[in-house]
Amino acid sequence: EAGVTQSPTHLIKTRGQQATLRCSPISGHTSVYWYQQALGLGLQFLLWYDEGEERNRGNFPPRFSGRQFPNYSSELNVNALELEDSALYLCASSLGAKADTQYFGPGTRLTVL
Amino acid sequence: GEDVEQSLFLSVREGDSSVINCTYTDSSSTYLYWYKQEPGAGLQLLTYIFSNMDMKQDQRLTVLLNKKDKHLSLRIADTQTGDSAIYFCAESLNTPLVFGKGTRLSVIA
Predict the structure, then answer these.
(1) Within the 4-33 window of chain B, which residues sit less than 8 Å (CB to CB) from chain A?
(2) Mean pLDDT of chain A
(3) What pLDDT, in 10s, does the model give residues B12-66?
(4) Collapsing DSSP states into helix, strand and coil, what is residue A84?
(5) CB-CB under 8 Å, A42 with B100
(6) A chain contacts of residue B6, beta-carbon cutoff 8 Å
(7) Is B98 in contact with B89 (CB distance < 8 Å)?
(8) Which of B18, B24, B30 has its CA nearest to residue B5?
(9) A21: buried, middle or exposed (CB in 10 Å: 19+, 13-18, 0-12)?
(10) Amino acid B2: pLDDT
(11) CA–CA dist B71, B96 (Å, integer)
(12) Could you report the per-residue pLDDT of B83-93, keeping only the tens digit for each?
């Protein structure tokens, strides 16, 4: 069974640009989570989607947004990129909104120059 | 509030046992997790324990939970060089997970 997949593996952008990151959950999982892992800051929760709806949001500005598609895959968009947005962005999925166990993808490394 | 604390570094010799400790603050957590992250990779779920359990063993891994002290530990028996990684403790109250900053385990051959 395929795990959580993310694309691209690496993304290089310049300040002010927009970035789009993609995630496909494990087959049968309806919940998708996004986390940011910046150097020295640990893992910070960004967004949670379940059944196409945004269920929860972390303490990030509105330029971080996303969506979940009918096939449960998800997209994270970061607008007006800042240098501090450089980080590993991890996506995780779980069976559903009440399922706690999250399985992670390999991440997308975003570098903002 | 929610906060998970771990020591940042641990160094052990190959073949010894490693014990990684974690404290959490929210007694309502239902599950507690251990994830492993190798360099440049995502997080691999190692094991988890339900909050009404005291101990869980899975091959070389033993998880101990002291709910009274809000203390969680991960013991790795017969530590190998392939165990070198960052280990994250995480608690689940309601989604999302709250992670510690991770313990970097170095295994000396």
Answers:
(1) 30-31, 33
(2) 94
(3) 999 999 999 999 887 777 889 999 999 888 999 999 999 889 999 999 999 999 9
(4) helix
(5) yes
(6) none
(7) no
(8) B24
(9) buried
(10) 57
(11) 20
(12) 999 999 998 87
Note whether B97 contacts A42, CB cutoff 8 Å. no
> What tokens were used for A4?
């959580």
Q: What percent of chain A has pLDDT over 70?
A: 98
Q: CA of A83, closest CA in chain B: separation in Å?
A: 20
Q: Is B99 on the interface with A (CB under 8 A)?
A: yes
Cα separation, B24 vs B10, in Å, equals 19
User: How many C-beta neighbours within 10 Å does residue B13 have?
Assistant: 10
Between CA B79 and CA A11 the distance in angstroms is 35
Best residue of A29, A43, A44 to probe chain B, by most B CBs closer than 10 Å: A43
Type of residue numbered A1: E
Q: Are B41 and A48 within 8 A, CB to CB?
A: no
A31, pLDDT greater than 90: yes
Which residues 43-62 of chain B have a CB within 8 Å of chain A?
A: 43-45, 48
In this structure, how many other beta carbons lie within 10 angstroms of the beta carbon of residue B23? 16
Q: Which residues are bridge partners to B92 per DSSP? A: B31
In angstroms, rounded to a whole number, what is the distance separating the alpha carbons of residues A57 and B91?
A: 17
**Alpha carbon distance A49, A33 (integer Å):** 6
Peptide bond into A8 cis (omega under 30): yes
CB atoms within 10 A of CB A58: 15
